[in-house]
Amino acid sequence: MRFDFKKLGFAAVILLLALTGGGYYYSLAGAAGNPDPGSSDDPLVTRSYVDRYVQWQVAELTPGQSFIAGAGTELILRRGTAVAVDPTGNGIPDLTGGQDITAGKPVPVNHLLIFPRDDKRGIKAQKGVVVMYRSGGQIQ
């Protein structure tokens, strides 16, 4: 019986990798997938947090009222006419349209807007407005 040392050497290298490096990566993946409940890797949240920051909320604005968004707020104008409020001059990111809406410009219906900072950006109702929003904001 004759041994093929090339094949045996290759098999040994594969086995060595599986026992050392491969096992290391698998143990890391297993640890990342099972964090301790309540730890910083698996924090607990309250229902009020989910209601305020995760679920969409609905607000109605009368003409002249403004919705001033907080940092990270997502907003969709569902009905009515509104213009952008932007004292910063940076515009409001319109993810649906792929552009920034600057101060005084019309806000399109059914477009997703995101407010990156808490810097008084928002929308102002021209006609009765219904908005859906997620995160925080104030009606003024």
- Apparent shape: elongated
Helix count from the secondary structure assignment: 2
Query: Could you estimate the helical fraction of the residues in percent?
Result: 25-40%
Query: What's the CATH architecture of the largest domain?
Result: Sandwich
Quick take:
This protein has 140 residues and is α+β, with helices and mostly antiparallel strands. The protein has two domains: 34 residues; 93 residues, Clp1, DNA binding domain (Jelly Rolls).
Structural account:
The protein has 140 residues and is of the alpha+beta class. It folds into two domains: 1-34; 47-139, Clp1, DNA binding domain (Jelly Rolls). Helix content is 26%, strand content 31%. The chain contains two helices and ten strands. It has helices at 5-33, 47-54, and strands at residues 57-61, 66-69, 73-79, 82-85, 92-94, 99-101, 112-115, 122-125, 129-134, 137-139. The strands form three sheets. The chain has a four-stranded antiparallel beta sheet. Strands 4-8-2-10 form a four-stranded antiparallel beta sheet, with no helix packed on it. The longest helix is centred in the first third of the chain and has 29 residues, at 5-33. The chain starts with a helix and ends with a strand.
